Amino acid sequence: MNTIFPSTSDQTRWPTALLSLLPFFVAGPLRIILSYQPGWKPGQFSQYYLFFLILSSLVIFGGLILGVVKKFPRWAYPYTIYLAFSLYLLVMYVVYFFHWNINGQYSLFVFLAATLLVLRLPGSRSFYSHIGQDWTLLSYSLYGIVLYILFSVDYDETPRLNLVVLMPSLVALGSALAHLRLRSAFMRLVALLVGTYTGLFFYMIPVFQGMASTLIGVIIVLLLLMAYGVVLTAFLLSPLLVRGVIHFLRARQTPQ
To answer: What pTM was estimated for this model as a whole?
Structure first.
C-alpha cells in the first residue's frame, strides 16, 4: 500500500480536526435535529428551515474558501463535493418554498461543474498537487458523497426524531475524524469504508422496521446495503485503482 500511497503523515491536530468537522455537524446532525422541531419541518415550508439551509451552505462555502487559502489541508477536501450537495439541497427547498414552477433537480450537476471550475483556478491548484503525494486525499474528497447520503432523512420512514435517525450522520462524522487523525494511508481508507458500511447499516434500520415480514425485511436491507455499499466503495477506492493503473503503465514503459 505504501508504494501506491506515499503517505505524507499529515496527521491533523485534535483542535483543527474537531473544528473542521463543525460545518458538517451544522449541515448534518444539527440540521436533522432542527428539522424535527415544531415550526421547522421541511414539509411545512418553514422559513426557519430555509434560513438554516442558507446559513449552513454559507458555512460550507466559507470552509472551502478557507481551504483554498490554506493550500488545501486534508480537512478541506470533502468541502469540494459536499458544497455542491449543500447548495443543491438549498435550491430544491427554495423552489418548493416559493412554489416556483422550476425543475431544480439538475442544479446538483450545475454546482458540481461550478465546483470543478473553481478548482481549476490558480489559487486552487494545490488541490491537485497534494493528491500526487497521497491519493487518500481524493478518497476523502469523495467521502462528501457518503456524508450527503448519511445526512439525509426519510421522514415517511422515521416520523419522529430518535437515535436511529442521528446514528448514520454521527457515524459519518466519527469516520471522518478517524481519517483526519490516522497516519497510515491504508488505515485512512479502512476508516472511510468502515464508517460508510456502519452508517448505511443504521440508515437501513427504518427500512427493516417498516417491512411486514422479518425475512423480507432482512432480504431488502441486505440488497440495499449491497447496492449502496458497492457503489460507494467503488467511489472511495477509485483513486487507488487509478493510481494502480498509472503505476502499472509507468512500470511497463520503464526500460528493462
So the answer is: 0.88
